[in-house]
From TrEMBL:
It holds the Pfam family Acetyltransf_9. The keyword Endoplasmic reticulum does not apply. Keywords: Acyltransferase, Transferase. Residues 1-97 form the N-acetyltransferase domain. It comes from Bacillus cereus. One of its GO terms (molecular function) is acyltransferase activity, transferring groups other than amino-acyl groups. This is GNAT family N-acetyltransferase. The keyword Acyltransferase applies. PANTHER family: ACETYLTRANSFERASE (PTHR43420).
Length: 174
């Protein structure tokens, strides 16, 4: 959903199907993304209108919605609740020689890398029946078109797994 002015998007919110498995039960859910308002049009209620309409549409088809954001306080008025995140740490000596790293840097725009990405995702197995996404493919591929996400993409042959990570201020973010 978007508001346009002179053929330009000034506010937007989008949703995608995000079926979940929770305690072994399939839940029809939606993910909300691309929430934005152009700076010149903020504080005019545009996002309130768009989010209200989006939630109304989601409520017709889904049991719940998820929204990942760095600013959760903006969405509590719409009924979203903050879920606690956890930070885990282990000591790491960055001076150890990492030339033997088993991680291969991937580039989603490279055809061979993209084939490996598709094969890895297609053969992946769910890690948990307690909580898992059932169709993460579209959102994963969409994120890879963002150069910042693409720069963080690696493959572990040992684990046969894709890993998206970065090290920032001596913190590993997965």
């Amino acid at each position: 959903l978007s508001f346009l002015q002179e053929d330009k998007v000034i506010a937007n919110v989008a949703a995608f199907s995000l079926p979940l498995l929770i305690n072994g039960e399939k839940i029809n859910a939606a993910g909300i993304q691309s929430v934005m308002t152009h700076p010149n049009f903020r504080r005019q209620g545009l996002m309130t209108q768009l989010m209200g309409k989006m939630i109304e549409e989601i409520d017709k088809k889904c049991e719940c919605a998820l929204l990942f954001t760095e600013n959760p306080e903006l969405y509590t008025a719409f009924g979203f609740k903050v879920v606690q995140e956890y930070l885990m740490t282990i000591p790491y000596d960055k001076n150890i020689n990492n030339n033997d790293s088993l991680l291969k840097k991937l580039d989603y725009y490279n055809i061979e890398n993209r084939q490996l990405i598709h094969e890895t995702i297609d053969s992946s197995q769910r890690l948990s029946n307690s909580f898992s996404t059932l169709n993460f493919h579209p959102s994963f591929y969409l994120n890879m078109y963002d150069s910042e996400w693409n720069e963080k993409l690696y493959y572990s042959e040992k684990l046969d797994a894709l890993i998206v990570y970065e090290v920032e201020n001596e913190k590993l973010k997965l």
